[in-house]
Protein: Transcriptional regulator, IclR family
Organism: Paraburkholderia xenovorans
Amino acid sequence: MAKSALRVLEIMEFVATHKAGCATHTEISQALGIPKSSLTALLTDLQRPGYLELDRETGRYAIGSQVMFLAHAYLRNLNIVRLGTPVVHDVFLKLNVYTTMVIPKGDMCLVVCSESLPSPLAHSLSIGQHIPMLHSALGRAILAFLEPEEVERFLHDYTPTPYTDRTKTGIEEVRKALAQVRKAGFAHMQGEYLPGIIGIAVPVFNLENRPIAAIGIGIPAVEGTTEFEKRICKQLLHSADTLSRRLGAKLKPTPSKLLRKGEEE
């Protein structure tokens, strides 16, 4: 990458993450090691199209409106189904089990994509199918990571349905189950929604670190060995994290050493 391009990226990220979201000419120069004369030219170039804005009273530079325009353009083009479908496909290829993704819809979840070998489970959870938020691993993976007040409103208004003899219907045991999901980072259920089926699911987060979907698998309980379930959890967590980052979750500034390395090359 060209040196000037790296400098621009460094400046933008430094200003965006600096205290109060703005920085002076001197602060930028000292932090990034850019000569003041070179920095002046770069800052002037960034101000013209609106990528940076200068408060002439304080002498501080802040991120400009053009950056927001680019960010909104990026977010407009994000589509959870379009981005999630290849992730679901990749999980299916690696695990060779029924794999699906859902999005929340009221007190239910909507299946938006799935991959499977021919099986009864594939017919039970086909695209367009609604499944319960509270009594499926997929739904519970979403519900557990909502804000506490949202969870309490949901529990207050929801009437549990005993889908099987293993379905948790007591509010306190449901609260305990949600706490376990938050602690583990994934939901694991056996036979609560579909008899004889183990469900494992993980949440997918958006730019605001809000759960907007879940990716999960379903396998017959007889196939659920400890080692296989560990492998499933590891793959799901990795895949969901990858998708979440594509949606803007958990974003962090680029480590300066990476930019420096690219500059040296």
User: Anything to note?
Assistant: The first strand starts at residue 22 and ends at 24. The longest helix spans residues 226-246. The chain has two domains: 3-75, 80-246.
